[in-house]
Design goal:
The protein has 138 residues and is of the alpha+beta class. The protein has three helices and eight strands; from the N terminus they run H-E-E-H-E-H-E-E-E-E-E. The strands form two sheets. Strands 1-2-8-7-6 form a five-stranded antiparallel beta sheet, with no helix packed on it. Strands 3-5-4 form a three-stranded antiparallel beta sheet, with no helix packed on it.
Length: 138
């Protein structure tokens, strides 16, 4: 999985919907899972951190539906990338119940506002002026 990220907002808009033009974006795509000998497309994911002004973040938050299933969301420790801004990294915390994973500590929203093409699954989280978008195919 690549460790670098891109900042081209126009290129990002080829992968996800942008309901508002961000001031800045950091993002990357990656294949999910492992390749097999079968023919067909592989699944992939997009992670994006979008920066907006405070009013736009509030407007987006007001338009999104809260995601309540699953109740708790855990990710592997390598899910959190070094290029994530500090505030986004801080949303993923160690939980004594599952210490080998990180728990997302924040309100998750349905990703439909950002979904595009086959990237329909995932979630959105806001923190300060940043919107973290995680979308993946199945």
């Amino acid at each position: 999985m690549p460790t670098s990220y891109q900042t081209d907002i126009v290129e990002l808009s080829k992968f996800i919907q942008l309901p508002a033009q961000p001031i800045e974006a950091r993002w990357q795509t990656a294949e999910k899972g492992t390749r097999t000998g079968g023919i067909g497309p592989t699944d992939y994911e997009v992670m994006a951190v979008l920066e907006y002004d405070t009013a736009t973040v509030q407007l987006l938050r007001d338009q999104m539906l809260e995601q309540t299933s699953p109740t708790e969301l855990y990710v592997t420790k390598d899910f959190v990338k070094p290029w994530f801004p500090h505030d986004v990294q801080q949303m993923f915390v160690t939980d004594s119940l599952y210490p080998e994973y990180l728990k997302l500590d924040g309100t998750r929203y349905q990703p439909s506002m950002f979904a595009k093409g086959s990237l329909l699954n995932g979630y959105v989280v806001t923190v300060g002026k940043q919107v973290f978008v995680y979308l993946h195919t199945l």
